[in-house]
Amino acid sequence: MAAFVRPPSIATEDRGMAAGSVSGRLVLDDRLMPGRVEILADRIVAVTADDRAVDRGYVAAGYVDVHVHGWNGYSAMDGARGLDGMSASLLQHGVTSFLPTAETASIENLVEFAENVRRWSPMPPGDRSEPLGFNLEGPFISRDRLGAQNGAFIQVPAAMSRAVLEPLLDGLRVMTMAPELDGAPDLIRWLANSGVVVSLGHSNASADQADAAYDAGATSTTHLFNAMSGVDHHAPGLAVTALTNDAAYVELVADGLHVDRRLWSLILRSKPANRLVLVSDAIELAGLGDSQANVAGMHIQVRDGRCVLASDGRLAGSVIALDSAVRNLVASGVPLHVAVRAASRSPLELLGITDRGTIAVGQLADLVELDDALRVRRVMKRGRWLPAAEALGDPAHSQGPGSF
């Protein structure tokens, strides 16, 4: 994969305030610790215990959403304006880095999307979430497990020339694929060798087909349980293979709608904690309350936090951000440090990015300060504090869609 150019620093336009330190209950990889984080420029330079911070808010690594289609009326498919708008909204919810994600579309539209992200990425304003590349949810998916994707644009790997896909590679970090499609194993190997994370999903694969795909180089699983073959004691599918493969990452949309929360503990009992990745799968209607719109040629409605196709009621993405996902996971009994890791360090490890995602010396100072209810007070991006959604009057902050 050609090198994706990211800016060495983000222009701040003097909107934030340089931070020397922040104290509170630090959410570390394996525990909570009252302490202080010292920051110089855009880096963490010291992390020390401090019992005096035991009654203060929580300080966590910035959240990272590797699967998000839009937010607050903005779509990742709408060029610089859409990318600007969604990235500003995501940062206000604690998401300091993200992968703008395209739904299944024509190859021509996907190439245009990729070019738009590449042009926009080097200079996003300082009060935006930082792009880490982009994600393609398709077009190599199963007609039997479409979910809310547009079946008119499905492609078969065996029929797709590598030369046609070459213009997509620069900046492509994740691509969803159904492993049972003709030619899928060969395309998985080619993508993996090009540095792309192949995520299995929108698939009716058998367990054996899923095993073969992970062996070929796939490393992740798109929104576990949703739009995939599942748990059958005679014919296990992709979900079973993903849960029983300790090396495979699994995405979870933790809104209580995509996956019943009683299954969340099953996932964590099956998977190593460092293989769980919280994603929003949010669409452009997120943050707008009850609403409706035509998205990718389909009419989608949001009612009471549930996002569905108007035609048949199928789920069509979510309307949460990762701050809601973390709160929801903790409310179900998951330890805070486990939930935060799934929203910060683990998605970065999936992408092979090591310069952020944990509170440690040398890391980028991308931090989120949380109150006792785990709502975002403020967000630090590369050493600068910026306001959270609540301070900007975002109604989705005080009543997070999909929360319970």
Description:
- By secondary structure, the chain is of the alpha/beta class.
- The protein has helices at 79-92, 107-120, 162-165, 184-193, 207-216, 238-244, 264-270, 322-331, 336-343, 345-351, 395-398; strands at residues 17-18, 21-27, 32-40, 43-49, 58-61, 63-68, 70-71, 74-75, 95-102, 130-131, 134-140, 172-177, 197-200, 220-221, 250-252, 276-278, 291-295, 298-303, 306-309, 367-370, 376-381, 384-387.
- The strands form 5 sheets. The chain has an 8-stranded mixed beta sheet with strand order 1-22-21-20-5-2-3-4. Strands 6, 9, 10, 11, 12, 13 and 14 form a 7-stranded parallel beta sheet that branches.
- A hairpin with a 2-residue loop joins strand 21 (376-381) and strand 22 (384-387).
- Helix 5 crosses helix 6 and helix 8 runs antiparallel to helix 9.
- The protein is globular and about 60 Å long.
- Mean pLDDT is 91; it is low at 5-18 and 397-404.
